[in-house]
Design brief:
Length: about 350
């Protein structure tokens, strides 16, 4: 079968690899119909060339392990592949644990499904496991301001959607070119608003202060974690009680005191505790383990897709299948994506023989 490998640049090569074997009794082999991409796919390749990238799988179950109970061959699914392990989304067939796989209803396309696994779970971990905010099934009962920085990104937009399901308002969204999309996610009648970062840092801070109406900020999800985002947030935070969730670990958070409550989302923790957090980070007491939480949230996503109160992120299909990955990842690196997720149809890969179930 064909599989793509990502190298610095980013440069993508297509290789012939053996058909995957089930790594354990709780895993599935999935025929990948559409794969999604994330900034980590080019970023990790810069320091770990040739590693397995691509973790957003949407496709059809090929086979299941002996202990898998909720899936069978032929099921339409989306899944979060375990990062940096063999057989990810960038190939004809991928492997994923049952706990991070969910059914796709007939009315949900593979393209939409491929936008959800990594970004949706990153948002959920940040809001509920790191910041300790109310979950949708036990929603907030009072005003609870939340800033989502980078609200038009896939992670940021999922954070806005989930916060709204948790009755968290006002949601103060920092966005730029994608502000039009973010507008469709918020409820102005509940105080939700958008602050345009293109006006400059001083304007962002002023906009945040105006939206908070004199309150000090207690909760922020920083889906950017770069370009001055966290420094801007520190101007409005309650420095004693505030909590900040960030998405980049290899970052010096200059201007954020070491004593401040900041948390790294680290989506890989829904698979394993081996993934690192931030130095000095403290786990919130009373939280479920991330692996248990992840399994619950993927069932929650599945239920929402089935009933129509949850959906994926806007997407753009990059032509060429696996051969389109280099273009898509280069565009991600260049910052060209706004309110859109790049996805790739495997069957469009030139020269693909076409594996069958």
């Amino acid at each position: 079968m064909k599989e793509a490998r990502v190298h610095p640049g980013p440069k993508v090569t297509i290789e012939d690899v053996p058909f995957p074997e089930l790594p354990g009794p709780n895993y599935l082999i999935i025929k990948v119909v559409v794969c999604g991409s994330n900034p980590k796919d080019w970023a990790i390749a810069e320091r770990s060339p040739g590693t397995t990238q691509g973790d957003d799988i949407a496709g059809i179950v090929h086979s299941v392990g002996a202990d898998v109970t909720n899936f069978k061959p032929g099921d339409r699914v989306a899944a979060f592949h375990e990062m940096l392990t063999p057989y990810g989304a960038f190939g004809e067939y991928g492997v994923a644990p049952e706990a991070t796989t969910f059914h796709l209803p007939a009315g949900v396309s593979f393209e939409e499904g491929a936008t959800i696994p990594l970004a949706g779970m990153t948002a959920a971990l940040g809001l509920y496991q790191r910041l300790g905010l109310p979950v949708p099934w036990l929603p907030a009962q009072e005003r609870l301001p939340l800033v989502v920085y980078g609200a038009a990104s896939a992670v940021g937009a999922f954070a806005v959607k989930l916060a709204a399901l948790s009755n968290i308002h006002p949601i103060i969204c920092v966005a730029g070119r994608g502000a039009g999309y973010v507008e469709t996610l918020i409820d102005r009648s509940r105080g939700d608003t958008i602050v345009d970062y293109r006006a400059g840092d001083a304007a962002v801070v002023a906009g945040l202060r105006a939206a908070l109406a004199g309150e000090k900020l207690l909760y922020a999800f920083d889906a950017v974690s770069d370009k001055g985002s966290f420094q801007n947030l520190m101007h409005v935070f309650d420095r004693d009680r505030g909590k900040l969730a960030v998405v980049l670990a290899r970052k010096r958070y200059e201007g954020v005191p070491d004593s401040f409550h900041k948390f790294f989302t680290q989506v890989g923790k829904v698979h394993s505790d081996r993934y690192p957090g931030l130095k000095g980070e403290k786990k919130l007491r009373g939280r479920l383990g991330d692996q248990t939480f992840g399994a619950i949230m993927y069932k929650f996503f599945e239920s929402g897709l089935l009933d129509g109160w949850f959906n994926g992120h806007p997407f753009e299909v990059v032509p060429g299948g696996l051969h389109g990955l280099q273009t898509g990842l280069s565009n991600l690196k260049a910052g060209k994506a706004s309110a859109v997720k790049y996805v790739f149809r495997i069957e469009e890969t030139p020269g693909l023989a076409g594996s069958k179930l």
